Amino acid sequence: MKILLFKPFEKYSEKTLLLIGVFFTLLGSFFAYVFNIRFDGIIDIHIVPNTLSYQALLDNLINIFCLVLFLYISTKYINKKTRLIDILNTALVARTPFYLLPFFNINDVIEKTSEEVFQFANPELIGQISSSNLFIIIVFGLITILFLVWYISLLFNGYKVASNAKGKTPIILFVISLLLAEVLSKFLIVQLY
After folding, report:
1. Tens digit of pLDDT for each residue in 47-65?
2. Would you say 90 and 155 are in contact if contact means Cβ atoms under 8 Å apart?
3. How far is Cα 158 from Cα 180, in angstroms, rounded to an integer?
4. Among the listed residues 75, 94, 97, the one whose alpha carbon sits nearest the alpha carbon of residue 155
5. Predicted confidence band of residue 109 (pLDDT cuts 50, 70, 90)
6. So what's the pLDDT on residue 135?
7. Considering only CA atoms, which of 71, 53, 182, 28 is closest in space to residue 20?
8. Which of 52, 107, 139, 157 is the most exposed place for a label (fewest CB within 10 A)?
9. From the CB of residue 146, how many other CB atoms can be counted at a distance below 10 Å?
10. What pTM was computed for the model?
11. Virtual CA dihedral for 41, 45, 50, 55, nearest 10 degrees?
């Protein structure tokens, strides 16, 4: 189970990983559309009043492109034999945990709860937040953090396998690649909308 959840790149063929990654990207885009979620950055998820079908898919395609671009450049620096398909599969499969998060906004529960909580943004009114709303926000926040860790873990494991990375330099290049991919994805998404 550990291999399936954290190290699928070591077990499954490139074709299987590609099919799984494309399937979950399309499914995740559909869920984002249905539950009004935007993946407007490689490590971002936002609940919005209305998501258009093309926005959900385009957000994911931009995020995957940015990840592949910077991870591929850094893995080529580490190992000239790194294949593009391995980095593409890494980006596609690693994003799968994020695609589960839209389910938490069924019936707009997270959106409505967030709106109610943000009404009490004034420090003097904080004590008036209902415990059920506070509980929902805390649980969603914790689950989102866990899924983010899972996503980064999958991404790094795929990165290591694709580049045969060892030592500290790949870790530094990985972090830089993520930061650059986040900046570029945000920029492209803002420019397109």
Report:
1. 888 888 899 999 999 999 9
2. yes
3. 18
4. 94
5. confident
6. 85
7. 28
8. 107
9. 11
10. 0.87
11. 30
